[in-house]
Amino acid sequence: MFNSIMRRQEEEKRMLEEKRLPPGQALTQKFPVLHYGPVPGFNPVTWNFRAWGRVEKPLSLTWDEFNQLPRTRVKMDLHCVTRWSKFDTLWEGVSVRTLLEAGLVKLLPDARFILQHAEYGYTTNIPLEVALSENFLMATHFDGEVISPDHGYPLRGVVGAIPGHKSSADVYLWKGAKWLRGLEFLSQDKAGFWEQAGYSNTADIWKEERFA
Ligand SMILES: Nc1nc2c(c(=O)[nH]1)N[C@H]1C(S)=C(S)[C@@H](COP(=O)(O)O)O[C@H]1N2
Ligand SMILES: [Mo]
Fold first, then answer.
1. Among the atoms of ligand 1, which is closest to the Cα of residue 157?
2. The pTM is what?
3. Fewest CB within 10 A of the end CB: N or C in the chain?
């Protein structure tokens, strides 16, 4: 107990020195679970992933098709608006950039924002630059294992900071939708679930943009 507290404090100090601990955040070695509503089930037969809106042609992929897409791995620091930060988390999945490069999604020239749509109507919005940055991934795996139901199985949007690489795409964790089912491409920004409830639209972790 005492040892684990000391370890947490030492790690937090190291992250502060490496300038990876944003203002007002504390390091956690756990992985808290936070969401609104129940954990949805998953049926691989009826599940689909859709992309629509400011695209040339709407896309719908089955679970099998989604899993055949080229995969990306990224290591990120996660920062929750409730003030915990989890460092060096490893995610694997499909990047939005891959959907574009594979020609599955062709953006109309006025596409500027993405609204992630999840089970039970949860939504969250990010600018296209954030969605196309290294900081955002549609993940199926966390730390080498299939994501647990609590954390978004089978697919979640995850967004964080790339260690040692500060960017304006470094936003709080609520900007990644667990149980992700689709991306709506938009010419104008549209507030998601927490954004409508008073959370910051831009959510920059370095500027502590927590609430609007
Ligand atoms: N579908 C869905 N995704 C969601 C949420 C939610 O309520 N529903 N909550 C968000 C919030 S507020 C946070 S902090 C993170 C928490 O992710 P975690 O439970 O994996 O830590 O999920 C985000 N994604
Ligand atoms: Mo949150």
1. 24
2. 0.98
3. N
Residues with CB under 6 A from ligand 1: 32-36, 80, 118, 122, 151, 173-174, 176-179, 194
From the alpha carbon of 118, which atom of ligand 1 is closest? 1
Q: How far away, in angstroms, is 36 Cα from ligand 2 center?
A: 9
CATH superfamily, domain at 2-29+42-196: Oxidoreductase, molybdopterin-binding domain (3.90.420.10)
From the list 70, 76, 183, the residue with the least C-alpha distance to 127 is 183
Tens of pLDDT, residue by residue over 14-70, are: 999 999 999 999 999 999 999 999 999 999 999 999 999 999 999 999 999 999 999
Domain ranges, ordered by start, for the chain: 2-29+42-196
80 in Cβ contact with 206 (< 8 Å)? no
32 preceded by a cis bond (ω within 30 of 0): no
pLDDT for 134 equals 97
Taking the CA of 177 as reference, the closest ligand is 1
In tens, the pLDDT along 161-172 reads: 999 899 999 999
- Ramachandran category for residue 103: left, alpha or beta (phi over 0 → left; psi -120 to 50 → alpha): left
